[in-house]
Write a structure and sequence with these properties.
mainly beta
Length: about 70
């Protein structure tokens, strides 16, 4: 069965070490405070690669089955 994230709708994958993760490998999605871009990879950037502003956690994985 396939799962997607309840919050962002991205398809999730099972990682043996971390459980359900976003496509980029991160459990959390982080967002830039200034330009609002998001990243789901692991490790998550502490500063925005585009504008340099600090990032904040947006949401954690919340798996729901795809029907």
């Amino acid at each position: 069965m396939a799962y997607k994230c309840l919050w962002c709708g991205k398809m999730l994958r099972m990682d043996p070490a971390n459980g359900w993760v976003h496509p980029g490998g991160g459990v959390y999605v982080v967002k830039c405070r200034r330009c609002r871009r998001t990243w789901d990879h692991y490790p998550a950037p502490v500063r925005c690669p585009v504008c340099g502003e600090p990032t904040v956690d947006d949401h954690a994985v919340r798996p729901v089955p795809v029907e």
